[in-house]
Amino acid sequence: MLSKVKKDELYSCCKPSELPFNTTADISFLEETIGQQRALKALDFGLGINSHGFNIYILGESGTGKLTTIKKILEEKSKKEPVPNDCCYVYNFKNSDAPQALNLKPGTGLDFQKDMDEMITLLRQEIPKTFESKEYEKQKAKILEDFQNKQKKQFEDLETLAKEKDFTLRKTVSGLVLVPVKKTGETLSEEEYEDLEPKVKKKVEMIGKELQEKLDDVIRIVREEEKKIKDIMKELEQNDFQQKQYIQHSQ
After folding, report:
1. Distance (Å, rounded) from C-alpha 212 to C-alpha 220?
2. 230 in any annotated domain
3. In degrees to the nearest 10, what's the CA dihedral of 161, 162, 166, 171?
């Protein structure tokens, strides 16, 4: 049966005289989290696991004090634990997708970062000066000149051999090609090539194949030399910079 509710039954009146304090300033701060004993017990258990690979996941409504509670518990626990090392990530030149982690003594990570920033600033100033030095430019020009002369000699020898066998080396959009030539020095057209006698055509094909193999060898050698030159130039840059740094520190 439904019954009418009286207004004094809708609330409970709390008289100030019943409270054990005069103002809220008289109340000590509540150190515990109310109504979450199981959660606190689970958290204490998780924080007590002294091993890697474990995580603690906390779920709850927004504004219920999760972050405040966790921070307080961790702050209290950390006071009893040894101070952890500083962890700094540095660039991995061998694998840019996997930076390297450095473990430093507690409190030294920030000093390391400042030192690295100062070193980078110094390098940005000194490296351009180093590369502008006359000695560096002289060595660099000599290395490039020797490479170009060797490259030129390789192709000149091939052109001489091709000319002796009635071929010429031509540069096209797709690269270098060997083309048979007539006694007059003019290149042999496709129509003229097709009109050659079978024996002559076969001989031209054999010579062309032989020269093509030599061309492939020359290109391979040139590419290997280019790779060596890059390594030499890199080493030259490093040595030149180290010498300049040594001179500066000696002064």
Report:
1. 12
2. yes
3. -160
Rounded Cα distance, 116 and 90, in Å: 10
**pLDDT tens digits, 123-161:** 887 777 666 667 777 878 888 888 888 888 888 888 888
Domain-embedded: residue 11: no
DSSP 13-47: ---GGGSS-SSGGGSPPP-SPTT-HHHHHHHHHHH
What is the rounded distance in angstroms from the CA atom of residue 208 to the CA atom of residue 193?
13
Could you list the residue range(s) of the whole structural domain that residue 230 is in?
Answer: 134-250
Q: How many residues does the chain have?
A: 251
CA distance 187 to 167: 8
What is the number of domains present in the chain? 1
What's this model's pTM, rounded to 2 decimal places? Answer: 0.39
Residues 6+ apart with CB under 8 A from 103: 85, 86, 87
pLDDT, tens digit (0-9, with 9 covering 90-100), for 47-71: 888 888 888 888 888 877 788 888 8
Alpha-carbon span 215 to 213, nearest angstrom: 5
- The answer to whether residue 85 is domain-embedded is no
Q: Measured on CA atoms in the order 177, 149, 228, 236, is the torsion positive or negative?
A: negative
Residue 142 lies in a domain: yes
